[in-house]
């Protein structure tokens, strides 16, 4: 512990605690008459779920005021998008909410497709692939949410379990797209490349293993007395609070409202899949956990249905819109390094068709033009409604793209869920919101 | 011979040429290409679908104020946009939230767009609303001039706008009057300027790669 600052501070003395010096702090505090303690938590703190900073006013162990400070991971993605083509945009947006990259890409591409007026022409196979990839991502994202939640409360087993299960999904992502994360797989008009040979079998294997793994989670946590003590009736936020604060996703469904865009305002053909929207009425941390676990089970159902279609009626269909002025021309064939062009396509443009070469060149360097206007497209991401507000001035680059990220909005619920509670419950309150700072700060 | 025809007003030029090169830089022949800016949209009735219901109910709820409050209505790409005059925003928002026939309970936040070419309405704030009761969506667009960048805050109606308005202030410099604590949220407190505005450069430095110098992204020659 370092000595108290002799700098001028506005109120009270400043103590800096850097670990293993708790007893020193207690010694120096004994005899002090301070009633209020202001604790600065983060931004570099293992239990704040990323670079989140919390300023807590404590009265004993009770939190009287919780303030949230964000912006430590601001990367200017929205500004950068304005200097790249519409297609290059997917490479940027995928890096926002890095635990759910496919959702960012899909929301963005749906917005661009709406502006282009090609929403109905996106091939069914591409939509089914998007659905399958999104639901796989939902599982991996919820696995991290539940896993890190356990670790932040001091239990390492959920984290190891969650990471192991997430790894299975990431391996699949790598197999299908070439990259584990930030894959820029969904493109305006469809997806970048069709499923490689063997992908259907690999997803099938995951479908066999995953239900047992989720059951393990349930066995370990659902009725675990320590877990229940840390989660039940903690960070209560009822439906009114959720509505006022704009909270969506598992938090809202744990407050009892079955609001899920996949059901209420379906996109990508979700209306043709059979699944339920799990809800809880407890509006606490435990309810949010139950909703997340049940959602993973529902996701498995959706993946199974999508897989049946991809292997059955939709086999061999296109995965990119049938429009040579928009569809990405490269027809990638996955190489061992995860990247690669199809030799057939290169032969076609280099020695077969002059027009194909021109189209390839124009689309790749200039990109397509998007008619002027604005559109808003939203998807149900693992954290709630992820919306993309996309504005075009008629050029080859976005005029403005704004992401309504659910983590950003849901984080506003920190004071409402933490104030009046114990300081130890702050950790579980924040973790149950499951904010991803890449999405919050963008 | 065209004297008897009504004069079609020429819209301002949006851009010339294709590459942003002026003078002799553009040898492609596209240098004389002129693209004019489209006029601002305003959709006449009927709007189609539930959009007419929203407009009717809002007109009923606002009464005589409707004409004053709603500048124009745009239906584009299956989305309804109400352009609201800024002084009427809090009332319109409260009506949209509370009226049983409207019930836009959920706001998806505020974002901004900067249109430097729209004189007198350079800065726009865009609010997306969602009615869970009726399963409807609606967009409000509010503009303010760059010289007087003030829009009334709607935090009292939608508390979720707290951070969203701070972000829009941070990135665009729109002052939301009545916000409880309008401070920067993403950029550091002592930052100069508002980065998402079109007159704010992207930044970056030229990079040398194998003897050639690659300019910063916003300095590169590019298609427009």
From TrEMBL, chain A:
NDH-1 shuttles electrons from NADH, via FMN and iron-sulfur (Fe-S) centers, to quinones in the respiratory chain. The immediate electron acceptor for the enzyme in this species is believed to be a menaquinone. Couples the redox reaction to proton translocation (for every two electrons transferred, four hydrogen ions are translocated across the cytoplasmic membrane), and thus conserves the redox energy in a proton gradient. NDH-1 is composed of 14 different subunits. Subunits NuoB, C, D, E, F, and G constitute the peripheral sector of the complex. Its main location: membrane. Keywords: Cell membrane, Membrane, NAD, Quinone, Translocase, Transport. Residues 153-442 form the NADH-quinone oxidoreductase subunit D domain. SUPFAM superfamilies: HydB/Nqo4-like. This is NADH-quinone oxidoreductase subunit D. It is a peripheral membrane protein. GO terms for molecular function: NAD binding; NADH dehydrogenase (quinone) (non-electrogenic) activity; quinone binding. One of its GO terms (cellular component) is plasma membrane. Its EC number is 7.1.1.-. The gene is nuoD. It catalyses: a quinone + NADH + 5 H(+)(in) = a quinol + NAD(+) + 4 H(+)(out). It comes from Streptosporangium sandarakinum. Belongs to the complex I 49 kDa subunit family. Pfam families: Complex1_49kDa. It is found in: Cell membrane. InterPro entries: NADH_Q_OxRdtase_suD, NADH_UbQ_OxRdtase_49kDa_CS, NDH1_su_D/H, NiFe-Hase_large.
From TrEMBL, chain B:
Keywords: Cell membrane, Membrane, NAD, Quinone, Translocase, Transport. It is found in: Cell membrane. One of its GO terms (cellular component) is plasma membrane. One of its GO terms (molecular function) is quinone binding. Its EC number is 7.1.1.-. It catalyses: a quinone + NADH + 5 H(+)(in) = a quinol + NAD(+) + 4 H(+)(out). Residues 82-204 form the NADH:ubiquinone oxidoreductase 30kDa subunit domain. Residues 1-25 are annotated as: Disordered. It holds the Pfam family Complex1_30kDa. It is a peripheral membrane protein. InterPro entries: NADH_DH_suC, NADH_quin_OxRdtase_su_C/D-like, NADH_UbQ_OxRdtase_30kDa_su. It comes from the Bacteria. NDH-1 is composed of 14 different subunits. Subunits NuoB, C, D, E, F, and G constitute the peripheral sector of the complex. HAMAP family: NDH1_NuoC (MF_01357). Belongs to the complex I 30 kDa subunit family. NDH-1 shuttles electrons from NADH, via FMN and iron-sulfur (Fe-S) centers, to quinones in the respiratory chain. The immediate electron acceptor for the enzyme in this species is believed to be a menaquinone. Couples the redox reaction to proton translocation (for every two electrons transferred, four hydrogen ions are translocated across the cytoplasmic membrane), and thus conserves the redox energy in a proton gradient. This is NADH-quinone oxidoreductase subunit C. It comes from Streptosporangium sandarakinum. The gene is nuoC.
